[in-house]
Amino acid sequence: MVIQFDSSFFGAPTMGKSIRMMGVSEHEVDEVLQHAKSNLRIAGFDEEEMRLRQRMSYKPHTLKLPQGPYIFCDFRTLQLPGIELNPPVSEALKRMHMLAADPGIISVMNKHSWRVGIMTEMALVGYVGISPKCILSFNKNHGEEISLRLRTNDLKGFRKYESIMPV
What is the rounded (10 degree) CA torsion for 103, 104, 109, 112? Predict the structure, then answer.
């Protein structure tokens, strides 16, 4: 459709010039808006609140220890008479369970048909990086007992998981 305007419309001479206008109907605009997908990367306030409620309703995931012939049979944490350990013994037990359930450790144990009687948390013998001799772990009687040093020198935390793994 071509619309002709006279010079009085713009207040300037437009003799012989035409303007083309294009558009869509309201129905087409409504159809596009209905079928437009919302941007899932940008969440609104309602979506954020719903996600927060879902996260809060999740129960903590319990670690499943491996089953089968090649496993760690038992676990024992560090007990020092008269000293209350912080982090508590329950956290040390969780660390030992994490190690026992580690896919790399499970794979090595299955490959070599190893069965460990007990994994224990060992007491500090020397200071890591300070003492000339520092024992980080030991294996007694070919896997009857494996002891690992999980805690830091000051007993106020755990050594990093990555530093325990190679031991």
Answer: 130
Compute φ and ψ for 49, nearest 5 degrees.
-65, -40
Q: Does the predicted model carry a pTM greater than 0.90?
A: no
Say how far apart CA 113 and CA 19 lie, in whole Å. Answer: 86
Residue with tokens 């010079």: 7
Quick check: 63 and 69 in contact, CB under 8 A? no
Question: Domain locations in the chain?
Answer: 2-57, 72-164
How far apart are the C-alpha atoms of 68 and 91, rounded to whole Å? 25
Which segments in the chain show pLDDT lower than 50? none
- Return the structure tokens found at 23: 């558009």
CA pair distance 21, 3, nearest whole angstrom: 9
Six-digit token string for 45: 């306030």
pLDDT of residue 54: 85
Neighbours of 164 (CB within 10 A): 18
Nearest CA to 70 among 133, 18, 116? 116
> Which whole-number Å values give the CA distances from 124 to 79, 137, 147, 148, in the listed order?
12, 10, 11, 10
What is the C-alpha separation between 39 and 61, in angstroms, rounded?
A: 31
CA dist 98 and 164 (Å) reads 11
Q: Pairing relation of β-strands 18-20 and 2-4?
A: antiparallel
